[in-house]
Amino acid sequence: MKTIIQTPNAPAPIGPYNQAVLINDTLYTSGQIAIDPNTNALVLDSIETETKLVMKNLEAVLAAANMTFEHVVKTSIFINDMHNFSKINSVYAQYFDEANAPARETVEVANLPKFVNVEISVVAVRF
């Protein structure tokens, strides 16, 4: 069964997509960027602040599906400058237990929506 997941605690989609789609026990989130869901403003003060808001937005989408970061089995990280990798990684690491961390890819791209510096999506499974 396909269920659309939406929450006001994460940014509304900026195009023809949903925050997440739940198929049976598997959740596929759309990429999250550093938009404050309360103001709809971008928060680009620093790469650490930006990454923290991205993770907070993902956390809100997971919660709307009754999941947490413990349910995440795969992440995709898109960044516009690989020089920011270690800073992004240090914030990201605060959300996962290293021993049970999800699979992941990190890819440098030319541009991201709204010209942000980082976008992250996850796949989570209810177990």
UniProtKB/TrEMBL annotation:
Which molecular-function annotation in GO is an example for this chain? hydrolase activity
Say which domain of life the source belongs to.
Answer: Bacteria
Cytoplasm recorded as keyword: no
Keywords (alphabetical) are:
Hydrolase
Could you confirm whether the keyword Cell membrane appears in this record?
Answer: no
Q: What NCBIfam families does this protein's entry cite?
A: Rid family detoxifying hydrolase
Tell me the protein family, please.
Belongs to the RutC family.
Which PANTHER family does UniProt cross-reference here?
Answer: 2-IMINOBUTANOATE/2-IMINOPROPANOATE DEAMINASE RIDA, PROTEIN HMF1-RELATED
The protein's name is Rid family detoxifying hydrolase
Q: Which organism was this protein described from?
A: Microcosmobacter mediterraneus
